[in-house]
User: What shape does this take?
Amino acid sequence: MDRNESRELRAARRPASAVYEDGDKVMVSVEMPGVTKEGLEVRIEGNELSIRGTPAVEETGGSWLLRERRPGVFAKAFTLDDTIDRDKVEASLNEGVLELTLHVKEAAKPRRIEIG
Amino acid sequence: MDLMKWEGQRMPDLWNAFDSMRSDLDRALDFFTFPESAGIYDHARAPAVDVIERPEEYEVVADLPGVGRKDLEVSITGSILTIKGDKKAEIEGGKRRFFRRETWIGSFARTIDLPDRVDPASVKAELKDGVLRVRIGKREEAKQRIVSVEVR
Assistant: This one.
């Protein structure tokens, strides 16, 4: 990571997220208002799942009477457990919310052993 | 338009000053504490809002990720704009166990007192990618007009 990039990441907004278990899937939902598919990057490198969302540039063409929305890039990283299947990650983006579906590796699922 | 002394920039609004102080503090704490902390004075249950003034109109922009069109209600009474809605759970019912939850669900409301110059009859709202944009026109007499005066 070069210096410019790390500075940008430090200034980035940390989006609110939720991680939950749904049956044998693990769901990650990340709120990134204003981000479209084009501005989204989801990467898995080793044990790190990193998410980066760049909202479309807004032309203001006026002056702010109130400004609470923080501008800039969204960035967040999660550490993946060994039991998560890296090759089976699904992503969808709806209404500014990214939903990732992670699957548990078949080998890591509890197995019932029949007694013969 | 009243004739008044040109002050250069708009007078700093006290709340804005507090707001920027808060965000500076949040940023500082972000750096020292848990990297994913959302900020101690976060606007937890009211969406963050921008209000922009343009020569012809006002625009109110609100971050509403995960809120559907049918769960959102925007209304205007005189110069008071109300944004109301319900943020639904990520998944309905079923078996779920949260490992981490920074998001919130439930109802929210935000009222914004706009300047008197708004025209409540010309309001347009659009919800896209989790961002609501409401554009409210100015009354005819409040729009900026440029009239060139001939100098003899």
Q: What stands out?
A: Chain B touches chain A through 47 residues (CB under 8 Å). Chain B has one helix and eight strands. Confidence is low (pLDDT under 50) at residues 32-43 of chain B.
